[in-house]
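Milestone M4 deliverable, item 7.
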Amino acid sequence: MKLQNIAIFVSVIAGMMGSAFAKDQMPPRVGFVAGAGGYPKMAVTNQAFFDGLSDAGYKDGSTMQVVFRTAEGNMSVMPQLINEVLAEKVDYLVVSSSPGCAAAKKATTTVPILCISVQDDPMKEGLTPTLASGNGNLVGVHSYLPDGISQQLSMLKKLKPEAKKIGVLFNPRNETHKRLLIEWETIAKMKGIEVFPIPAITPSELQGVISNAKSATVDIAIGLLGADTYAMRKEIAEAAKENDFPIAMDTPGGYTQMGGVATIGVDIVPLYRQGALELMVPLLKGAKPSQLPWIGPKEATMKVNEKMAKEFHLTAR
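Output delivered:
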């Protein structure tokens, strides 16, 4: 074979090998740090996210690799879990909850971050100066409504029209919860309603704080949205029933199916799917967070467990 032909042959083989390598490139590694819920048996919120990615052609083990961690409601471990995932050399980082997003923002300025289920206004959280676009390497999905608390108060009053004192179940270690509690107190006061704080960090505290609320003649309560409260939603439903004290939850994920009386607030499950399709997919295709807008809700909704509403002597509609 002539030298010229050999050179051509080698060039062709090299090109074929290069093409094969391009096709066999490792799929993107997506780090996912959940505030609560496992994997692959997932919470309904996380399931909506991964279902959305799957529908768009991104599946764990084939077209992407998922590095998963969960805090199971313990927000104090979020920074540690985020650093563990980043140490796995992920290409993208997905983090749920406001505390998780704040920790992710501190942890990296280079890996693209998708925040999901930010409970408060992302601008108030210091995550972005505008909702029109992401900030640096971070963009996300939030559940904040400017008049959301007013809407929730109105819905609570539909359940208990004579309510004059409303409890707010919150995690005192959650900075977003503490800020939202102040908003609840301010807005409720303008409507002639007193807010009674019900602090709880772990399920073991629920019996005591609910007993205190009943002794203080609280009419009805609502638990604030968060991975911490989400992780103990079943225990909240059980403690509420045991103490004959109605607690609605600003959280999805089967609270009413678990015996909870109602969910009142933004349904974040569709937002998880929307975040997957409208933010995560573009990121995987090369878009930068700063090129994408934040996604937020349009309204609050109420879902009532009719059976439990009757047991609590509430107005179901």
